[in-house]
Amino acid sequence: MIAAIIKDSIKVTGELLLIFLCFGLVSCSESPEPEPRSEVTRSVPANSNQALLNALGTHTETVILGSSDGPQIIITPEFSARVLGASIGGAHDENMMWVDSTIMDGTFWQKKPYFWNSGGLRSWIAPEDLFFVDADKNPESWFVPETLDPALFKKTAQGDNEVTFEAEVELPANIGKVYRFTLSRRLALLTDPPSGAGQIPADVSYMGIAKTHSLTNLSDDVIGVDLPYVCLWSLLQINPSGTILVPLKDGSDPKTAYREYFNPLGDRLVVRNNI
């Protein structure tokens, strides 16, 4: 079973907009054995962290948190500092993140500019009708600004299980204005469940990713006064086996808290109590 435990809060102070998102992923699958120390190389599962690392190769920088035989995440600073790989059991275990197929077959690198969405967990900026469509707001004109994704982030700090990245972004708006800001992303690998998750059964393996991202205005124009308000989204793109549980706050109506943007889930979706 795979579960997502989501907490989020918003704080606005002057020109600084912060959105915090923490989520946990748990699995009942057993952790794989450590990599054998021999000249015989174990075959690499197609949908694994190691397969992703092999596909990325020398094409782009990667930052790895965790171990090869335990919880592990893979971050790509040059592609918006997104988490592109997340595995509970290490390099040869299932990568729970959705990754664009052209990354895995190598065709992604053959055309520049690179496709904006390589996959994984990424930051996004709203409202889309301010940045992602032409001035007439025709939905057929929808595009992703290259300065936003894939934005080039630089590592500013790193500890044992956490890393922080920053990027300076100039994002044109369709009102004839340009937003200039610093986008910061702090990512941490969690090996112990948060207190709010309750007691985890002994036969369940756990890993978590804590993410904090912030936007700091660099322009003399004040956001919310001279410029329209903006906000940060945290978009998680996953494709794991198992079941996803999304808890809602007490008092929330699941029918209004959930919206299908694209293909209906049909009987794959069950709404029960606060989940």
Describe this structure in words.
The protein has helices at residues 49-56, 101-105, 128-131, 254-257, and strands at 3-13, 16-27, 63-66, 72-76, 82-87, 121-126, 154-158, 162-172, 178-190, 205-217, 231-236. It is mainly β. The longest helix is centred in the N-terminal third of the chain and has 8 residues, at 49-56. The strands form three sheets. It has a six-stranded antiparallel β-sheet with strand order 1-2-10-9-8-7, with no helix packed on it. The protein has a three-stranded antiparallel β-sheet with strand order 3-4-5, with helices on one face.
Summarize the structure.
The protein has 275 residues and is mainly β. 8% of the residues lie in helices and 33% in strands. The two termini are 15 Å apart.
Strand arrangement, largest sheet? 1-2-10-9-8-7
Task: Provide the low-confidence segments as ranges.
Answer: 1-40
What's the tally of helices? 4
Return the string of H and E elements: EEHEEEHEHEEEEEH
Radius of gyration: 20 Å
Structural class: mainly beta
Residue-averaged pLDDT: 82
Taken from the alpha-carbon principal axes, the silhouette is globular
Number of strands: 11
Helix content: under 10%
Termini Cα gap: 15 Å
> Which percent range describes the beta-strand content?
25-35%
Largest sheet: 6 strands, antiparallel
